[in-house]
Amino acid sequence: MKKKSEVAAETESPEKKGGHSGLAVRLRYARLIAGLTLMQVAQKAECSESLISKIERGSATPSLAMLHRLANALDTNISTLMSDEAPPAGPVLRQGERPVIKTGDISLERLVLPTRGGLLQANIHIVAPGGASDGQIEHVGEEVGYVLEGELELRLGDESYVVGPGDTFSFQSNTPHGYRNVGNVEAKVLWVNSPATF
Hints:
Elements: H1 4-10, H2 23-33, H3 38-45, H4 49-57, H5 64-73, H6 78-82, E1 100-103, E2 106-110, E3 121-127, E4 142-149, E5 152-156, E6 159-163, E7 168-172, E8 177-181, E9 187-194
Antiparallel strand pairs: 1-2, 2-3, 3-9, 4-7, 4-9, 5-6, 5-8
Helix pairs in contact: 3-4, 3-5
């Protein structure tokens, strides 16, 4: 494992790089701080070493499920890897000013900005027609969702449910879960989970 001084010699923190910050820089920084090689991260995230390399170079964009696996492999969360902005001083996030994390056909509009030790996470999942979560994920916690627009097929283990506007769902996060937009229009789901994992 590398010492922090050795890591500092290889890369600056994303904050010090200013305009060069982004997922690629933060992923590489987190990997170096953890003292892991590309191969070690790839093995933990169950993907190829070349994919990790491409993401770190900014030539590939990971799916939401892959981001989750990378965050777990690096003992962090998606927010730390994706967010440029520091939390505001006040408790209100105005419409049109909330940060949005985009990956593939899915965007997450932040309703609660991440804080160290925070237990609550809430986003609006915006899913393009045909967009999906790229497989099922599982982690510690509980989740609840409320469909605002469109239709989703929610997969919980071997079970599948189609949910539409006004429908709600809840489940334990250690149940393998994923979803897919089965409609012809964009789907929007208010999604809350605790503790924060994204």
